[in-house]
Amino acid sequence: MQLGLSSVDYLLSGSIIYFLLPSNPHLTLLHVLVFFALAQIIGLISTVPGGLGVFETLMLFMLEPYFGTVDIIKPLLLFRTIYYFVPFLIGLLALMFYEYQERDEFLRKIEKATYSSLSELTPQVFSILVFLGGVSLLFSGALPSDPRYLHDLNYIIPLPLIEASRLFGSIMGVLLLLLANGVWKRIDGAYVLSLSVLLMGGIFALLKDLDYHEAAILFILFFFLLPCRKYFYRKSSLMHQSFSKSNVTAITLVFVSFVWLGFFSYHNVKYSNELWWQFGINSQASSFLRATVGAFILLLVLGMAKILSPFSRDIHMPGAEEMELAKKIVNQSEETSGNLVFTEDKYLFFDDEKQAFLMYGVSGKTWVAMGDIVGTSNHAKELIWDFYEMSKLHQGRAAFYEVSEKYIPVYLDLGLTLIKIGEEAKVPLEAFTLEGSASKDFRYTVRNVEKKGYWFEIISEEEVQSLMPELRNISDAWLKLKAGKEKRFSIGYFDEKYLSNFPIAIVRNESEIVAFANIWAGADNEEISVDLMRHSSDAPDRTMEYLFVKLMLWGKENGYRRFSLGMAPLSGLETRQFAPMWHKIGSLIFTHGEHFYNYKGLRDFKEKFNPVWSPKYIALPNGFKQGLALKDIAALISGGVKGIFSKENKRPASRRGKQQLSEKPSEELT
Predict the structure, then answer these.
(1) Which of 121, 436, 535, 638 is the most buried (most CB within 10 A)?
(2) 635 within some domain
(3) Are 302 and 350 part of one and the same domain?
(4) 562 or 481, greater pLDDT
(5) pTM attached to this predicted model
C-alpha cells in the first residue's frame, strides 16, 4: 500500500513538471520522470532541505539540450509553488485554525486584556496628537505660504476670508494647545471642543493657503477622535482644571517658538506701523503680526480668567447640614468605614448628586483622602478626579490612603503609584461558631472570663451618655500607658460627641466596666465592626478577645453577614526574588519589627478568626513627592510631626506575661 501511494505521488509530481514544460517532440514523459527521479535522489543525498537548489541545478543540466534556460526555470518555480508552497500554506492555515479553536477562550482573554490596556492610554495618545495639531496650526501660520497656491487662491476664495482664516487658524492652534490638557484628563468638554476646533482648524488650513496636507492631518485626527466618546467621562469645568508646570512650560515654549519662527521667516520685511493694516494675498507678514497679537490676547484673557476665577469648591469643615447629609449616606452604605466621618476632624467632598463623598485631611501640601468613596454614585470616577483637581488648584498633591482594589484603574489614570500597605480581615459570620475543635481556644476564653464574674453587654446610643464618665476613666487610664497623643484621622479617638453616635459593647462585672468598644454597623445587616477600644488595668486575661468573640456571636444572631477586624499593616507582602523593593522591606519589618510594632502578632491574632483577607493600598504621587506625601500622611495620623517619633511605653513588668501576649494584638486593632 505504501509503495503504491509513493509511486502515485512520484508519477503526479513528475507529470506536473512535464505538463508545465513547453512541448518538444524529442522529450517524452518517460524522459522527464527519469530526470525527476535522479534529481530527487541526489537532492536527498545532499541533505539540503527539500533539495532546494540541488534539484533545480540538476534539472537545468538534464533539460538544457531540449529548452532554453528561461523556459526551464519558469516551470521549476511553478512546480515548487504548486507542490511545496501551496500545501504548506494550506497546512499552516489549517494549523492556525485548529490552534485557535483549541485556545479560543485563552486567546479571547489575551485580546480583551490587550484591548483594555491599550484603551486606557487612548486619552493620553489623543492628548499628544491634539497638542501636535495645535503646534502644526501655529507654525504653519508663522511660515510663508507656498507661492504655487497663492495665485490660484485669490480667484477661488475672497480676500477677507483668507485674512480671517490666517488669524483664526493661529487662534485654533492655541486652543488645541490648551485643550490637550483637558483631553489628557478625560474631561468630556475638552473632547467636544477638541472635535470642533480640529474641524475648524482643518477648514481654516484650506482657506488660508490651500494647505491640504495639514488639513488632511487635522481631519484624520478628527475622525479618529470622534468614536472615542466613552473614554472621556469626566463632567468637569474646563476653567477649573489645573495646569502643571510642564504643561505651562510646553505651551510657553511652543508660543515663543511660533513668534521667533515668524520673525525669522519675515526678517527681510522692514517693520512699519502700516504693516498692521496691510491686507492682500502676499501680505503674509502683516497676517502673521495680527495672528500673533490675537493668539497672545487669547492666552492673556484665559490666563487672567483662570487666575481670578474662584476655586471650584469651598474648603471648610463640615457644618450641621453637611453632617446630616453624610450621616444619611453612611447609614445607607453597606461598608462600615464611612463611620469615621463622625469624628468631625476631616473635610468632606461630595459628588454633584449628593449620593457619595470622600473624607480627607490636609497636611503640609498633601491632600489625603481617607479610604474609598462612601456611598453609591454613578459618577464615582468624576468624584475622585475632582478631588485630585481640587488639590492641584490649591497647589497641593493628592494621595489616597487605605484604599481597596475597587478604583485602582482611576488612581492609575491620575498617574499615581499604588503601594500595598497591608490586608484587611473580614470574618464571614455565618461560618463563625464556638463548636468544634477549631474553636476550642475561643471556648476557653469565654469560660475563663465569665467564670470570674464578667459578662458581655450592648449599650444603646441612648444609654451611652449616662456611662460616659466611667468610659472616660477607662480611656484615660489606658492612655497613661502610652506616650504621646492618640492617633487620629484613620481611626477614632475618645470624644463624647463621637461615641454618642454608636452603640457600645462592654465587658463588665457587678461593680464596674473593664472594657468597651464602639460598634459600627453597615446598612442591610451587611457588615459590623469596631473602632475605638479601651480596657482597664483590672481587666482579666483575654478580655478583648472575649469581647470580639461575643460581639461576633451577637452580630450573627442579629443577621449580620461579616465582621471587619480592620487592617493588618504590612501583611500579605510578597518576598519573591523579583518582588518590588517595598514588598521586601515591608515583609522584613513585618517579620522582625517587634520593637516598633507587633505586626506579626496582630496578623496571627486576626488569623485565629479565619477571616477573608483583602489588600489595602496607598496611592501616592511619583518621584520625590512620594516621600513628602508619606511624611505628611504620617503627621496627619499622629497629630503632628512630633507624634511620628513618639513611642508607646511598655507595660510594667508585673503586668507582662500571658496577658501581654494575648491582648497586645487586640489593642493594636485600634
Answers:
(1) 535
(2) no
(3) no
(4) 562
(5) 0.61
